[in-house]
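Worked example 2:
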Amino acid sequence: MKNLKLGGIHSWTEETNKVKILNNIICYNHYGIVCVGADASNFIEGNTIENSKGPGIKIGIANKSSIIRNIITKNFVGIEVIAADPLIFNNQIDKNNSFGVFTRNYEDNNKILRCDGKIKTN
C-alpha cells in the first residue's frame, strides 16, 4: 500500500472483532495503520511501515491492540498511543522524525482517559 492520500489501513472495530494485520508493506502515506474502537483487540505483526507523514501506527482511545515484530521507520512518529492499552513488543522502531513511541491521555467532558499500555523489548 503506497502513496495513498490518507493512510494504509484504518481499522475501526468493536470488542468482539479480532482483526489481524500481517506482513504488509505500507509506505509513503499520511499514516500507516490506525486502530480505534473501545476494547478492540487487533493483532498487528510482521509489517514494514515507513515514510508516513504522520504516525506509522496510531492506536486510539481504549483500544487493546497488540503490535508485535514490526519494522517502523522514517515516519513522523513511530507509534502514537492516545488513551489506549496496547501491547508494544519486539518492534524495530528507528529513524522517525520526532518520537519512537509517543503516549498521551485524553480528556473528554472533564474525564481523563488513561494510557496504560505495555512497552517491552523494542
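The chain has a mean pLDDT of 90. The two ends are 24 Å apart (CA to CA).
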